[in-house]
């Protein structure tokens, strides 16, 4: 077993699409899926851009104001997640700062209450 402290990952700042106060640290890369730790400073923004593949943002700490293709903002708290479909334009903002995990790529993500993994048979 290995323990990974997301705070210890090397992060790089991202300024594309008008982003500010945004940095990422990759800790899982595959041919079809990327797993990254995300930090947004207070008042930070991940600028509006299209999702390369299906994308899941899971809020770990702080707050997130997310929007999808229609631009309608929704607030997320720790333990909540947003899913964007391939090509969907989206944006994330944080008033107080954000620590999150993003998984993007070839993912099956169920609807609330839907069982994705049937377990051992």
From TrEMBL:
Pfam families: Cupin_2 (PF07883)
Residue ranges of every copy of the Cupin type-2 domain listed in the record: 38-95
Recorded coiled-coil stretches: none
InterPro entries, alphabetized: Cupin_2, RmlC-like_jellyroll, RmlC_Cupin_sf
The protein's name in its UniProt record: Cupin domain-containing protein
Organism: Nocardioides exalbidus
């Amino acid at each position: 077993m290995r323990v990974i402290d997301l705070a210890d990952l090397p992060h790089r700042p991202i300024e594309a699409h008008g982003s500010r106060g945004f940095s990422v640290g990759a800790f899982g890369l595959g041919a079809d899926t990327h797993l990254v730790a995300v930090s947004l400073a207070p008042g930070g923004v991940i600028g509006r851009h299209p999702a390369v593949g299906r994308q899941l943002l899971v809020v770990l700490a702080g707050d997130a104001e997310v929007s999808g293709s229609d631009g309608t903002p929704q607030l997320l708290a720790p333990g909540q997640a947003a899913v964007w479909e391939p090509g969907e334009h989206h944006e994330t903002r944080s008033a107080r700062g954000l620590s999150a995990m993003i998984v993007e790529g070839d993912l099956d993500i169920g609807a609330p209450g839907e069982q994705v993994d049937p377990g051992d048979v």
